[in-house]
Sequence to fold (983 residues):
Amino acid sequence: MAPKAEIHEEQVLQAVILAQCEQDYGDPVTQDVPKVLAPLANTPLLEYSLEWLERCGVEEAIVYCRADTHLETIREHCRVAFMTRRGDTTPATTHPGGLRVNVVASEDCHSLGDAMRDLYAKSLLKGDFILLQGDTVTTLDLPALVTEHRESRAADRNAIMTCRKTTTATLLVSASTNKLLLHRRRGGRSTSSRLSVPTELLQGAGDILAYPAAYDPSVTICSEVVPSLFSDNFDYSTLDSLVRGVIEQEELLGYTIKCRVLEGGYAGRAASINSLIGVSGEVVGRQAYPLVPEVSQTSHRVRYHHDAFTHTYWDPSAKFPKGSMVTGVVVGAGTEVSPTAHLQNTTLGDHCTLGDGVVVRESVVMTGVCVKGASKLEQCWVGDNVVLGEGVVVAPGCVIGAGVTLGDRVVLAPGTRLSARPPLGDLGGDVIEPDPAVCGVGGVAYVVDQEEEEEEEEEDEEEEDGGGGGGGGGEMDESEESEEEIQMSDDEYNMNEFQHEVQESLSTALREGAAAENVVLEINASRHAYNVSMEDVLTSVVQGILKAGQERSTASKGAEGLWPAVKSSITAFQGVLRNYVKKNRDQILLLNAVESLVRSCPPFLPLAKGVLFELNQTHEILDDEVIVAWYRGGAAGATSPLPALRTALAKFVEWLEEEEEESEEEED
Amino acid sequence: MAQLSEREFIDKLRFEKYDTEQAKAEESLYLMECIVGSVHWKTGSDLLNLLRNVGTSVQAKMPWETTPCNMVQRVIKIVIDEYNTLRGENQGVEYPSLSQSMLVDPACGDLPKCTEVIPELQDRVLEAIAEQKAEIEQSQELIAAQGVSKIHNDEVIVMCAMCPLVLAFLTKAATQRKFHVIVAERAPKYDGHPVAKALCTAGIETTLIQDSAVFPIMSRVNKVIVGTETVVTNGGIETFVGAASLASPPKFYSVPLYVCTPTYKFSLMGCEEISHQTTTSIIPEGTKFWPSVNTALAQLDYVPPENVTSLITNK
Fold:
């Protein structure tokens, strides 16, 4: 008998590196070089990740980027770097144990969510994979994490296992199973220092570890379920939203997230200019050993001399003072630094020239830069081929794009961003002259304006994307006592958007005479998109219906009176209202909604009575008792009925009460 | 075993997949066997060039890995010698120093021209490499066997750092002699702790002391035994950090310092080329030192030849 052949699935370890999904650095930097190829200690950022993945035995790395001008550069880089590493010219060699790099691009990838959906659609991910951001430098023990992940998957169905270390998210983790119970990202916008924890969380878990500040290096081990979860929920854009979604829907889906806080290893994310400088300092200080600056990550040759005690690395062809004034510095090939210069914690690229008395602190300087005497640079990023004149003072946080020339004695305000290319004028044909006030005589530089959002983004260094508004905006507690509701501006923004949408749907429906189910469907879709609670939905719907009636009457230029229009609107939407108004509580909400609408739009005041009459008598959506109770007892919320409203409704309520008595009498 | 290519070897070295120096030496010899055994070369010069390429690439990428470089240099010498023997020259020439008789550094100077095609060259070279291999494999036992003759009863010996060779040396000697070993614990890695444990399980009386207590203890010690990474040309050694401070007190108190080293650790490196190999991996994450404080954790140290009494090797 022939022995049965066992089919083993080759477990190829894959990694996904997200490059280019969000533009973080701002234009002057990413104009010329893609973010992942920006050099950190004179090595492109992507190299650190690829090198470390290769050491961890990952067999295939998928570099995911947006299909724009930088795609070719990234592709070329991966191919060239890969070949130098391999030392042969045939890229198709399946070298056992090597790392295959695959660059995948997509047209409209704006977030991690889009990337995941695309990868899922292309079926490139075959099993568990490691998810990294392209700008991470890490020496975490990935193989150990992967084994642990695989073991826990065998025991129980898991979605993701993450590893976090220290600063920006608040985590609650169950100690025995490492299950993630609560995750809240603390952005710069959060003003409260309290965290409300639903008690159900505390019930099931045994020991809970609370990490008030966990730093996310953005390294995650995901199972193959993750991309499918992303594609099911089209509004998940960042990993945070996925985490929250999975935790909330745990009973439904049965997925859990495990979380480990790691002790050893280094991980740093160079997301913004400041963090780039910070991570650069740490790598220069050899905290990311074995990824050290003196060994080139592309060709693995030792390219710099290294002085351990001042943490200085220099190329043999560089001329610079090796004294105590120079510490924590990486100096590229062919660079000349004058003996009187002071350098501290900076990276200089190739072929730079620094004149006498130049002071450079905690900056990143790229290739071909010429800085003339007595200039001061602090915590800034200077692009390729920049020429700075004498006595230029560059304040912290400045970004000077490639090719900029600054005249003598120019002083830049903190946070200025300059670019050598003029901003695109609307008319195209204009040639904007460089402003001497900005860049000095003979200089060429244009200030790049940033939008508000980007600036806020720069402040919170570890925020993943500008859409942090969607991900980080607080959760709407579904509980009834919402006294601790933290009012964040994102909530209001969401509400406004939602109300607009509802309004539009209702107006359109009224005009076209759409069926109730369709309207309900539309409203529900909007609700899910903006993550709005049921009470708000009801309120918005009611107000929307009334306003739609108003719109209709104004649209027909007052030919129809306001009241008839509103009445017909209510009639048209009675199905919708019935769908949302089921319990007494809903009815009270409806009444509150009418009241607040009256408060905000006075024209509705005389109609309030008519509205209530309609809803009560004709459509029987509102019960008599409820109306009476509401009127007598005041609203369940904080405000009491308007005096005007009270008087307007007084008669109606009296009549209702009489009716009640009559019907009671009749029953007797 | 499958054919090992130069690239794979370098990758393995880079990813630190070898546990001991002996494994590295064996693998590098194996690599060279593959090169010699392959059909890519015709004359001696070709072979020498191939070997030289291996040597330079390892040197360029990992200058601290001296063992593979040593082996390459050995093999080059073997090839040259065999070639010359087969051509009937250079019989019985005396070499001025040990290193010259064993190694040829391809980096300095041209290699002698070996342009004749001699068919037996390949076989002879392979034989010689096999001999080298056997020598490496036996090095540990041969050194350990000398323990009995070097150590006497009731002696106090100081050793340091996790060195399997020295441990083997001492444990073999312990089967026949009774002596006392003092181990320095070597912060911050605390290598000394597992060493002390290993010695205890072998039945040797052990004392664990802190690094700073080495000097006062030295007056009562009979000998100091250490292992090494590399032996440099002037007779000094490049070894674990802390060895330099371990080696000065014996000089002061006239206590002999023995270095147990197999022959594959002899190299042509000059003493000025030694770097300390610093990392900062021990510093806990998040300690706010930077930027005013530099932290440096050295890995290697140099002991000058004046402090070394003798080398115990396997020849």
Observations:
- The mean pLDDT of chain A is 70.
- Residues 550 and 562 of chain A are 6 Å apart (CA to CA).
